[in-house]
TrEMBL record:
Pfam families: DUF4274. It comes from the Bacteria. Keywords: Signal. Residues 1-20 form the signal peptide. Residues 74-108 form the DUF4274 domain. The lineage of its organism: Bacteria, Pseudomonadati, Bacteroidota, Cytophagia, Cytophagales. This is DUF4274 domain-containing protein. It comes from Hymenobacter negativus. InterPro entries: DUF4274.
Length: 112
């Protein structure tokens, strides 16, 4: 009989502990997501620059400029470029992104 009572208390305690852990994890995740969105945003001006120089350039019969690409030192900007990239423009710029020392694993995984 004591065993069953002890087991019920243990189950109740574990259920409460799990609920508390889930709540804390949710709050931490929400706060972290908000911080990441703030930390990993690019300005509209910079987005316009990337789109003007590395997005759908083949439709305008232009070639991508490697010297302009080499000025990009932000992993967030590389990820943005990979996200908006039109594969009809060919793989050249995507190769530059992957070969960049600023390219992170998430960006590489998105390309492949």
């Amino acid at each position: 009989m004591r065993y069953k009572r002890w087991l019920r208390k243990l189950k109740r305690w574990l259920r409460n502990a799990v609920q508390a852990a889930v709540y804390v994890a949710f709050r931490l995740k929400t706060n972290l997501a908000q911080q990441l969105n703030m930390a990993h945003a690019i300005s509209q001006e910079r987005a316009n620059f990337l789109e003007a120089n590395f997005f759908q350039f083949s439709f305008e019969e232009r070639e991508p400029d490697r010297t302009l690409f080499d000025t990009i030192t932000s992993p967030t900007e590389l990820h943005y470029m990979a996200h908006i990239y039109n594969w009809d423009d060919g793989p050249e710029v995507l190769g530059w992104i992957i070969d960049s020392p600023y390219c992170d694993r998430g960006t590489s995984a998105m390309i492949f």
